[in-house]
Amino acid sequence: MGDEKKEVSEVKETTETKETKEVKEVKAEGKKSFLNENSLEIITVILLGITALLTAWASYVGSIHGGNQATNYATSNNLSSDGNSMYNAAVQTLSQDMSAWNTIASYEVEILYADQIKDNAAVDAYVWKLQWFCEDNLPENMAKAIGYDVEKFTDGNNDTQDILNWLKDDKAITSPFTEEFINKYFDEANAKLEEADKTIEQGKQDNANGDKFSLVTVLYSVALFMLGIVGVFKNSTNKKLVLAVSVVCLIIAVVFMVTIPLPTSGGIFG
Asked: Domain tally for the chain?
């Protein structure tokens, strides 16, 4: 009886040991099941789809940047052409206004001299010349600068005395062509040229951003290639290694892409 009990006990221990080993093996397989062959295939397919979509998106945004670059370059050229034309027109206007001022200044000298020697006839004559010349040639900005009141000095009511009183003011006989006054002739042209510079800079930025998106597309292509060859490897470790490299490339590409500004216009961006 003792021997039989001993044998039964040994059989039980052996059975329990086998069951324990089987349980451990099942648990071990359960731990490894997340990255089994089937899981690797599913993860690879999902990543292939995501990477393909991201590649298409990067190519689309890059093409918009390229279109904006071309548009901004063309717009900048047009703005520069308009600005240069306006600048040349301002130079001509400035030259004409300086010539007009020289004529006005000569009449002022004649009026003051005639008044000094009490030659009333000469005073009236040069006042009439001044009135006539200013009516046709004095621009509003210069009239304001020298204090010439067109309405008051040509209303027929004591015009000569009004002009003589005006000539006593230093502003009337001082050249209005200060640096500030001259710069105002070119304000519109400079504003147009400044707008052209800003537009060309935006075009350069679009060009740089387009190049960056092209680089992102290359990184996505590398990730696609790595994901595409995962199934070629028979060894599970090699598959996991290639998959890990592709994921790293994908993450780098995504992080780099989100740091690039989106287009300011074009496509779905308005």
From this structure: 1
With respect to residue 128, please indicate whether it lies within any of the assigned structural domains: yes
**CB count in 10 Å sphere of residue 32:** 11
Residue 205 lies in a domain: yes
- Whether 37 is covered by a domain: the verdict is no
pTM reported for the whole predicted model: 0.70
**Within 13 Å and on the Cβ side, how many CA atoms surround 212?**
19
The helix or strand, by DSSP H or E, that contains position 148, with its residue range, turns out to be none
**Does 198 reside within a domain?**
yes
Residues 236-258: pLDDT tens digits? Answer: 888 889 889 999 999 999 999 99
Find how far residue 264's CA is from the centre of its chain.
8
pLDDT digits (tens, 9 = 90+) for 187-228: 999 999 999 999 999 999 999 999 999 999 999 999 999 888
> What HEC string does 225-256 produce?
HHHHCHHHCCCHHHHHHHHHHHHHHHHHHHHH
Distance CA 10, CA 125 (A): 145
Block residue for tokens 């008051």: 152
Q: Which two tokens stand for residue 30?
A: 């359960």
CA neighbor of 251 nearest in space, from 221, 230, 220, 226: 220
Q: What span, in angstroms and rounded, lies between the C-alpha atoms of 115 and 127?
A: 11
Range of the domain at 114: 44-269
pLDDT digits (tens, 9 = 90+) for 116-157: 999 999 999 999 999 999 998 999 999 999 999 988 888 888
Secondary structure letter of residue 117 according to DSSP: T
The pLDDT confidence band at residue 34, using thresholds 50, 70 and 90, is low
